[in-house]
Write a structure and sequence with these properties.
By secondary structure, this protein is mostly helical. It has 7 helices and 2 strands, in the order H-E-H-H-E-H-H-H-H. The protein has a two-stranded parallel ribbon. Helix 1 (2-15) crosses helix 6. It is globular, with a radius of gyration of 14 Å. 25% of the residues are buried.
Length: 122
């Protein structure tokens, strides 16, 4: 399932604009999760964190920057806490910085739209 999520998000960053909702991710990546069930939503959050941590440790932008909670303006606290764990700064400060998320999304798109990066790392 992690492979499907990662592949979907890479493709999304190359071909789409904006962000993708949890629900759209679950449906289009055919994950079979029910987001109404708290442990299934938690599992999705864990997988997104695992993917982003691995990407960040490999020197690539965290793909979960592209996924947002439907109806919200951006990311939830867990995303910013993950960024703090990865050493990007204190989570509350990151959440307050309007440019932080925009920059991460831009970095994601730029990285994955580069054909050499896509061929080597996708």
């Amino acid at each position: 399932m992690i492979g499907r999520i990662r592949t979907y998000l890479i493709r999304y960053s190359r071909l789409q604009t904006g962000t993708v909702s949890y629900l759209t991710l679950v449906q289009e990546a055919e994950l079979g999760l029910n987001l109404e069930i708290s442990h299934e939503k938690s599992r999705l959050n864990e997988m997104l964190a695992e993917i982003s941590t691995a990407e960040f440790e490999a020197g690539r932008p965290p793909l979960s920057a592209l996924v947002k909670v439907q109806g919200s303006k951006g990311q939830g606290d867990n995303f910013y806490k993950l960024c703090e764990k990865m050493g990007m700064g204190e989570w509350r400060s990151l959440k307050q910085d309007e440019e932080f998320l925009k920059n991460l999304i831009s970095e994601c798109r730029a990285f994955w739209r580069d054909e050499a990066n896509f061929q080597q790392f996708a």
